[in-house]
Amino acid sequence: MGPANRRPSYATREELGQAFNFDLLQAPFRAEELRRIIDDNLALAARSGSSTTWVLSNHDVVRHATRYGLPEELRDGRQYVLGDGHTIACDADLGLRRALAATLLILALPGSTYLYQGEELGLPQVVDIADEYRQDPTFFRSPGVDKGRDGCRVPLPWTPDGPSLGFGSGEPHLPQPTRFRDLAVSRQDADSRSPLNVYRRALRLRAQLQDGEDMEWLDSPQGTVALRRHDGWVCVANLTSTPIDLPSGEVLLTSADLVSGKLPEATTVWLRPR
Question: Which has the closest alpha carbon to 54: 46, 62, 45, 67?
Fold first, then answer.
């Protein structure tokens, strides 16, 4: 992850056209930090004449559904992985809730969003892989220091049964934990509020709503971010631990269910003001 100020040199039309922005991979789940990163990267994209990029997970980092459930000071997840998930508590439900809220936020932004395989299923980092199954060279080169990246490379579960949970006809190249059965595509298909279906609705809506790179910040309560896109639709992300009043308008999509007309904690909404 090189210095951000070098990104425009690679992202010009004469070079690559785009360059990965990895800033969100290390960012805390805090409104002021996310807003700063968004502003910085939109400015860098403007310098290069390109569109910016957004990514929350990739094959080199702990999945963000797990990172967001860890204490903020340990947010990169490496110590959690090193302890096989036994030495540090991870709030998996909170992590997934925050992951979906963050995803709806970045999908509302100008630019391109890159999604890492399995995040649409809400997959957590697999930290309890026995040493004899590990394959990442990092694990063998750094014994006792780094467990490597195998935990985010475990094959996706397509069905709740079969030798590789539908990933193929044989055994998986990395063992899939039992909890992956409940996260299988075939099970999430039938659940309208599953992570998979939240992603599907968000991507369909994004294709309909996105037209241009214009964006403006709106005033919002502390600990939240709110923005308006070119044709008036609005995204509000409540990154706090308490509900806030829901802005008026037609609700298009939420990352979690609304409660009594409120936008719950760690929840993002897309809406069209009336």
Answer: 45
Residue 173 one-letter amino acid: H
Q: Which residues contact 246 (CB under 8 A, 6 or more apart)?
A: 258, 261, 262, 263, 269
Contact of 91 with 80, CB cutoff 8 Å: no
Using CA atoms, how far apart are residues 191 and 188, in angstroms rounded to an integer? 5
Alpha carbons within 13 angstroms on the beta-carbon side of residue 255 total 29
Tokens of 81: 């992985």
CB 37 within 8 A of CB 24: yes
pTM across the whole model: 0.94
The alpha carbon of residue 87 and the mean position of all alpha carbons in its chain are separated, in whole angstroms, by 24
Burial of 210 (0-12, 13-18, 19+ CB in 10 A): middle
Instruction: Give residue-wise pLDDT tens across range 53-89.
Output: 999 999 999 999 999 999 999 988 989 998 888 889 9
b/e per residue 138-162 (b: at least 16 CB within 10 A): ebeeeeeeebbbbbbbbbbbbebee
The residues pairing with 270 across neighbouring beta strands, listed in sequence order, are 235, 253
